[in-house]
Amino acid sequence: MSKSDGFTAEERAAMKERARELKAEAKAGKLKAEGEADIMEKIGQMPPAEGKMARRLHEIITATAPALSPKTWYGMPAYANADGKVVVFFQGASKFGSRYSTLGFNDTAALDDGDMWPTVFALITLTPAVEKKVTALVKKAMR
Question: I need a labelling partner for 73 at 20 to 30 A (CA). Which of 83, 90, 101, 131 fits?
């Protein structure tokens, strides 16, 4: 091959593949940033105590499972895996006039424990003990 021939077919294929990877990474970063902004906007619309809980859950979830992407889901904060499927979500009590908020996990979460296990948890307040349980559940969900 002479210098004037340029890149080989393999080199061109590798460059195209890398360009696709960079584009996908940029899109993922943009989607993650947009999801973060959407969640913060929704949390800002919640009643103060509920918003405080949602913000703290957001901090715990994003620190514990940085691979999850924040997004809104039915107007509530949620966190999705690389396939875009929601793993964990928060539903504020005010959304449907409930007496408590909930933290839920979809079937994409690895919480399996025998023939039956809980996937939705009632939240009244976030104490240090509750935060520890949430962290453990999120870690388990990501196995």
Answer: 131
